[in-house]
Amino acid sequence: MHTKQSLLADLKALGIDPNGTTLAHLSYKSMGEVEGGPQSIIDSMVEYMKNGLMVFPTHTWANVTEDQPYYSVQETEVCIGIIPELARKTPNGIRSAHPTHSVVAFGRDARSFTDGDHLFTTPCPRQGAWGKLLDRNATILLVGVGLNRDTFIHGVEEWLDIPNRINENKRMLFIRLADGTLVPRPNSGHLGHVAENFPKVEGFLREKGILKEGKLGDATVLYHQTQPLTQALNALLLKEPDLFGER
User: Fold this and answer.
1) What digits encode the pLDDT tens for the residues 123-182?
2) Are 151 and 25 within 8 A, CB to CB?
3) Is the separation of the CB atoms in 93 and 113 below 8 Å?
4) Does the predicted model carry a pTM greater than 0.85?
5) Sheet of 182-187: strands edge to edge?
6) What is the C-alpha to C-alpha distance for residues 22 and 129, in angstroms, rounded to an integer?
7) Which helix (H) or strand (E) holds 96?
8) pLDDT at 247
9) Percent of the chain at pLDDT above 70?
10) Whole-angstrom Cα distance, residue 229 to residue 4?
11) Rounded to an integer, what distance in angstroms lies between the CA atom of residue 58 and that of residue 102?
12) Choosing a second label site near 240 at 20 to 30 A (CA), which of 24, 153, 181, 195?
């Protein structure tokens, strides 16, 4: 059985900078038996990054729809798994107010990292939390999942303005901030399912030494820093904008 201490040791073995910024996409089932269950995984990561910033995606794109256009920082459930759902409820976390692609952050500057996400109208705005991951050269952990779950790559495409990625037709959503204020904001979603094609660059990123592999519990972990990945993908996408297009 994996324990909090063994998970801390695994994170250290991955070489994650405890003073930097880390975002983790996780499959709980992939990690094997963990003492304390999924909450122990969250607590281990938050403790490891106590002098930096630990971030979990808390997406709600499947729960905030035309039929149900309301997002609440405090109440709207996550649609991407048990660990993000528990993370949003974990004490001392600050959840952003993006209505479909929110995150929850833990650390000294968690509030400034998440602040203002409700002001934007696209899924991964450059000035929002996903763009701040680039500014910080954050580490993205894919724990038991593949590149098709790497939301950051959606950001790379958005910032290059790749055609046919963002719906031009905005829908009006209503965002309930942590202080109870209700803010209406038009918002665009992603088009199609291009993320299923993100793994086509896995071999290239491995060869370049950008995408690395390790273990966390029983799970295989793919991980990268945001700046070298962005630089490499920018070069590929400028040559072939529809690299990840659906075929």
Assistant:
1) 999 999 999 999 999 999 999 999 999 999 999 999 999 999 999 999 999 999 999 999
2) yes
3) no
4) yes
5) 70-72, 171-176, 182-187
6) 12
7) none
8) 59
9) 99
10) 30
11) 5
12) 24
* Dist CA 70 CA 81 (whole Å): 20
pLDDT at 14: 97
Residue with tokens 């798994």: 81
**Two tokens at 219?**
């799970």
d(CA 217, CA 186): 41
pLDDT tens digits, residue range 43-88? Answer: 999 999 999 999 999 999 999 998 999 999 999 999 999 999 999 9
C-alpha span between 117 and 104 (Å, rounded): 12
- Single-letter residue type at 30: S
List Cβ neighbours of 170 (8 Å cut-off, separation of 6 or more): 121, 186, 187, 188
C-alpha to C-alpha distance for 17 and 64, rounded to whole angstroms = 34
Q: Which two tokens stand for residue 123?
A: 């899924």
